[in-house]
Every structure is written in structure tokens, then in C-alpha cells.
Amino acid sequence: MSKGMETLRASGLCKGITEQELGELLGAAEVRCYEVGSRIVAEGTPSDCLFLIEEGKVRVEKGSAAGPVVIASMGEAGDFFGEMSLIDMLPRSADVCAESPLRLLALPKSKLAAVFARLPRLQVNLILNIARSLSLRLRQADNRIVELSRQLLVAQGR
């Protein structure tokens, strides 16, 4: 079994996807390698790919007036990023940088579109899996907002 297939099988992105569909996804994927500190995507740029981590770690950061703020770290085989812009078609919402030597599977939008044209069930499953992931991230963000609000109220003596 190839490393790429192992990565796809491990990913929450691919739950409910058949072996044939995984093979089609792998056929559309490009392996990309990055050195520590490399920027994989830049906030505000057009989106062209969905990425899955094969090996290594990334950090996701958003720009702010006080400098970049780390909003997430990922480092498990199958973790994915770049999915938001597949859904909302907007520019990248954050920078993603390599925290270690990094090997990714990149799924370019143009190649995904060709696969989806042949396998619409695969597209539906990917979108549902992305929606589940985004829902979990939104729940985590909601909890973080509540915690930060609580801390602010305590700091203000309320």
C-alpha cells in the first residue's frame, strides 16, 4: 500500500469513500515537499488546492495589528487544510507554514473537478466530510470565544 493511500485512509476527509474513489483521488494528487519555515499558502491569495498532510507539521496563522496569531497546528497523517475555499470560493483565510520538514498531498481544484465529474458520489462525501470538520472547528471556536470573554470579564473585575 502506498504512503498516499495510507494518508487518504487516515483522513477524516475520506470517511465513507470507497477504495476505487480513494484511488481516483490519489491519481489526482500531487506530492509536494516543503522545508521548515516555508509558507504553503498565504492569507488573501486565491485558492487552488486542498492539502493533506502525509508527514510533518504545519501551523495556521492569521495576521493581526500585533503580528501573526497562531490559530491551529496540525501534524497527523491525514490532517487537511485549504478546504474552506473549496466551499466558499473566497481567498485563503490564513497563512499556513511548515513547522517541520513537510510532505503533502495536494489536490488541485482543476483535477478535483475532473474527478467529481466522473464520480459525483465522491464529491458529495467529500463535501459532507468537510462540513463535519468545519462544524467541529466552529464548535471549538465558540468555546474559545466563551472562554476569552470569561477571562476578559474577570480581568475587568466583573
Could you describe the 3D structure shown?
The protein has 158 residues and is α+β, with helices and mostly antiparallel strands. The protein has one domain: Sandwich (Jelly Rolls), CATH 2.60.120.10. Helices cover 44% and strands 25% of the residues. The protein has 5 helices and 8 strands; from the N terminus they run ααββββββαββαα. The strands form 2 sheets. Strands 1-8-3-6 form a 4-stranded antiparallel sheet.
Helix-strand category:
alpha+beta
SS field, number of helical segments? 5
Proportion of residues in extended strands: 15-25%
Provide the helix percentage. 40-55%
- Strand order, largest beta sheet: 1-8-3-6
Which key terms come to mind for this protein?
158 residues; alpha+beta; Jelly Rolls; four-stranded antiparallel β-sheet; 5 helices; globular
